[in-house]
Design goal:
This protein has 124 residues and is α+β, with helices and mostly antiparallel strands. The protein contains four helices and five strands; from the N terminus they run E-E-E-E-E-H-H-H-H. It has a five-stranded antiparallel β-sheet with strand order 1-2-3-4-5, covered by helices on one side. The termini are far apart.
Length: 124
């Protein structure tokens, strides 16, 4: 297992079924929360969103989704496993896929701004 630490944290005013996870040395914050499964709207899945340090999603787009077709009764168990990330991270394919997404390194700042400059130049 990777040595990078993923820990569940409590955010001020955080309520509901979602869980906030802080990842690695750069302290990135992610919220994993239930959303309706678009393939089967009577079921649910979990989606991960990268957040600012105060817990506000950076974009409206999920960076990952999994556990498709989950019933509402399955969600608390999945979220509890994520809350105890140090000891019982979900060992199934979706749990491993989420872990890999969370552990992706943040792109270098210069690469992001350079890409934006190139895109702006194409527009002009």
């Amino acid at each position: 297992m990777d040595e990078t630490r993923i820990e569940a944290i409590e955010m001020r005013g955080s309520a509901g079924l979602g869980v906030f996870l802080r990842v690695g040395e750069d302290q990135r914050i992610f919220r994993v929360a239930p959303v309706r499964d678009p393939r089967q709207p009577r079921f649910w899945c979990l989606a991960a969103f990268e957040c600012s340090t105060c817990g506000i999603p950076l974009t409206g787009d999920a960076i990952w989704a999994g556990w498709w077709g989950s019933s509402s009764g399955e969600l608390p168990g999945l979220l509890d496993a994520l809350r105890s990330a140090e000891t019982s991270w979900p060992r199934d394919a979706d749990g491993e896929a989420l872990r890999q997404v969370l552990l992706q390194p943040r792109p270098p700042v210069g690469a992001i701004s350079g890409q934006l400059v190139e895109e702006a130049a194409e527009v002009v």
